[in-house]
Specification:
single chain, alpha/beta, Uracil-DNA Glycosylase, subunit E, six-stranded mixed beta sheet, 6 strands
C-alpha cells in the first residue's frame, strides 16, 4: 500500500484521479477541513419579510370534456357523409389520431345496399387512406365478387360500401380499447344512418362489440341479428380466413345468406 505521494508516478496518479472521478469526487479539496456535522455558531437570520402579495381568487376548474358526448354532438350535426367525414377527421379526443398516418373513412359506393363494417385500418390501409386494401381486403373483394358485389360498382344493387369502427390505425395493429370504440360509436351510428344500407355485414369481433355489445365471432357468425336498425350478419374477418383456410366454407355459407337476403328469399 502506498504511504507517500512521492512513490506515485504520473500514470498511477492519473489512474487514481480517474477512479475518484468515477466515484463522484469531482471537486478539489479545500485548504481547510470542514466538519459538515458541526452546528453553525449562529443560525442564519431570516430574510426581511416582504409584504404578502394579494392572493388571487382561485380560477374555476374547467370540467373535463366527455369524449363520447363530444362525439355524439359532432356526429349529430353532420348532415351528409362528407360533413360526417370532416367532423370525424377533426375529432381530437382520440389518441389514435396522433400516431396514424392517414384518416380512413370509407370506400365503395355510399348508395350500396350492403355496408361492410370492419375493425380498424392496418398498415396498408393507414398508408393508402382506404379500408380493406391489404391482403385481407383483397380476399374480401374476391369473396363478395363471388356473389356479384363489388366496391367499384356504380350500380347500388351490385355495390359494396365499406368502413371501419375506427378510422385511425391502432399502434402495432393492437385490438382497439373499449374507450376508443365508445368514442367512435356515435360516428359509426351516424354513418349507418346517412348511408342507409339495406343490410350490414360485421367483419370480426370488434364490429360485433361496437354494434351488438357482444364478442365471440365464431359463435355469432352466420346468425342474422339487428344493429343500428338494420338486418345484420356477423362474419369472420378475412384475416382470420387467411390464417384458417378451413373456415372459408362457413364464410361461403354466410355470403350465400347475404345473397339470399338481398334477393328477398331469406
Amino acid at each position: 500500500m502506498l504511504t507517500d505521494a512521492s512513490q506515485m508516478d504520473f500514470h498511477l496518479a492519473r489512474a487514481l484521479l480517474a477512479w475518484q472521478l468515477e466515484l463522484g469526487a469531482d471537486e478539489p479539496v479545500g485548504d481547510h477541513p470542514v466538519n459538515r456535522y458541526e452546528l453553525a455558531a449562529e443560525a442564519p437570520k431570516p430574510a426581511a419579510l416582504m409584504p404578502a402579495a394579494p392572493v388571487a381568487a382561485a380560477a374555476p376548474q374547467v370540467a373535463s370534456l366527455d369524449p363520447v358526448a363530444v362525439a355524439k354532438a359532432a356526429a349529430a350535426a353532420a348532415g351528409d357523409l362528407a360533413a360526417l367525414a370532416e367532423a370525424q377527421a377533426a375529432y381530437d379526443l382520440c389518441d389514435l389520431k396522433k400516431g396514424a398516418r392517414n384518416f380512413v373513412f370509407a370506400d365503395g359506393n355510399p348508395a350500396a345496399r350492403v355496408m361492410v363494417i370492419g375493425e380498424a385500418p392496418g398498415r396498408d390501409e393507414d398508408m393508402e387512406g382506404r379500408p380493406f386494401v391489404g391482403r385481407a381486403g383483397q380476399l374480401l373483394d374476391r369473396m363478395f365478387a363471388a356473389i356479384g358485389l363489388a366496391r367499384t360498382s356504380p350500380d347500388p344493387a351490385g355495390a359494396l360500401y365499406i368502413t371501419n369502427v375506427l378510422p385511425w390505425r391502432p399502434p402495432s395493429n393492437r385490438d382497439p380499447e373499449p374507450e376508443e370504440i365508445a368514442m367512435m360509436l356515435p360516428f359509426l351510428a351516424r354513418h349507418v344512418e346517412l348511408a342507409d344500407p339495406d343490410l350490414i355485414v360485421l367483419m370480426g369481433n370488434t364490429p360485433c362489440a361496437a354494434a351488438l355489445g357482444q364478442r365471440g365471432i365464431l359463435r355469432l357468425r352466420g346468425t342474422w341479428t339487428n344493429a343500428f336498425g338494420k338486418p345484420t350478419l356477423p362474419m369472420t374477418h378475412p384475416a382470420y380466413l387467411l390464417r384458417t383456410p378451413a373456415a372459408k366454407r362457413e364464410a361461403w355459407a354466410d355470403l350465400l345468406e347475404v345473397k339470399a337476403r338481398l334477393a328477398g328469399t331469406a
